[in-house]
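Spend some time on the protein that follows and explain the fold to me:
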Amino acid sequence: MKNILFFGDSLTAGYGLPAAQAYPSLLQVRLQQEGYDDYKVINAGLSGDTTSGGVYRIDRWLREPIDILVLALGANDGLRGIPALETTKNLHEIIRKVRQKYPEVKVIISGMEIPDIVPGRYAAEFRKVFRELALKENASFIPFLLEGVVGNRYLNLPDGLHPNAEGQKVMAQHTWNVLKELL
């Protein structure tokens, strides 16, 4: 059995939804439908988590082998205005810890963006974090996990921040487009 660890925040956890509707669960179903029965999805999403929290939290997930790491942290860093350099360092450290224990791990970085309505350079700096990290770490890259979901009231819960079941399906498809190349 090969493990795919989805390490993220409320978007990964499926905030406000039954676990079966979170995009990692949808991808487990897709893997089975496509004949990849030897892959097990582990959802390590924690609502509210930041990249600094992830640095400390990753250790407990290293007890089981990780064949593919889907790193989907950073949205809360952006919402809190944490400096892009700090976010970059934390994401790099998470990848370093996983590769130290599992050198053959394949890594997918899920890109996040700050809405353009946020003034100043921060949104642009934040957006670059994920693309540059993917290049530096030789990782696969999902440009924007919430592409087509953010700002669409039909794909989000009433809070306007968290995807509903339909929004999770869109996120699953964005992830599948990259994940299938690593199987």
Observations:
- The longest helix spans residues 84-101.
- The chain is about 40% helix and 15% strand.
